[in-house]
Amino acid sequence: MAFEADPVHDPTDNPYLPKRFHDMSPALDTNPTDIEYATAPEFTPQVTHDPNGGLLTHPGALWHGNGHGLAAEAGDEDEDETGSNSSDSLVEIEPHEFPGYFSERGVPARLFHSHGMYCFPVDSDEMKRQQALHVLLRQVIGSNYGDAPVQGVLNHGSKVVDLCTGVGHWVLDMAAEFPFVEFRGIDLVPIQTREPPGNVRFEIADATQELRFANGSVDIVHARMTSLRGETLPYVINEIARILRPGGLFISAEWGSYAALHPQHPRFGEHGAYIPGAHNFYEQSSHVVARAQDIPGFIHANGAFDEPVSQLRALPVSRTHYVPGMHQASSRQDEALFFVSQVMGRIAKGYARALVAGDVIQQGVADAFIGELQRKVGIVSVYHSVYARKRG
Length: 392
What we know:
Blueprint: H1 21-30, E1 62-64, E2 91-92, E3 102-105, E4 110-113, H2 124-141, E5 159-163, H3 169-177, E6 182-187, E7 200-204, E8 218-224, H4 233-243, E9 244-255, H5 271-274, H6 276-285, H7 295-302, E10 309-316, H8 331-357, H9 363-375, E11 380-389
Parallel strand pairs: 1-7, 5-6, 5-8, 6-7, 8-9
Antiparallel strand pairs: 1-2, 3-4, 9-11, 10-11
């Protein structure tokens, strides 16, 4: 199996993004409200399950610890001298160590994290799916951080930590926008670029374990599409609260792991009957990701933060998108929705393929879900974003 020498960051060479999507990008970026239901504050998730219930051939500067969490190398001002028990030095990953982070499985073979802690593939196709999501969200929302008051928090020398950074698209974009800020991208798998800019470092660590940063040493912690399981979230949020300075900012964003229709769809609330394939798909796969709608409650319950500010965005995912009062939509709005639904549809199919490859769901479940995306009108994916300031 051939692997790329470095993740591809050129979004114009991405099969998940239609070529003409790039022509629409300026329109989506300058006026994202053209997408009628990019924001849907009236959307109420229908809880339908138990609420309790490219290998890098030239790795470059990636760092790991010894399993007890990461600690800083000599002279690294990230070092926690007071609040963490981590005491090991950061060690650069050697090229011969990289194969140990990966394993192949499935037919056709796909690349996975070797330790089994992450159920999604970490190969080129998954990297491009994640890239397409990043590009789409940036265009629809209008920035890499939505309404979160990022600019009011960051100053020269500020530090930002991105948990579950993946390939690092968010970190690299933000590092270009804020070149005076230091960024740290944390992930289990070494799939990041081998040549990050000078204000970026990628580190290999488990975000569900003790973070190596000192108490109150970080200005922003960002966690997006993490695939962290619900039972880990209280501890993770507690660690985030520990490393954030007073007034620091926590930003979280996750996709809702439930079947959903546009809020004004006439069958809204009848998901089980109208889209049973999607309903079953999410019922069988929701256990591998955090319940996005629970995160504001976890933040509130932690007690270290001001009241969290939440926003929901319902993006069209079915082949035939739905516009309230279909005949009233302007041609520009309709075209924007068409491109969003095209990208989201391709991403959803890639997500289903990834879950099959990871043995989370059976092929038949994925096929039923994909079939509904092609036939049914008004299916959406709901993007839950929330931010909160640490109390000073």
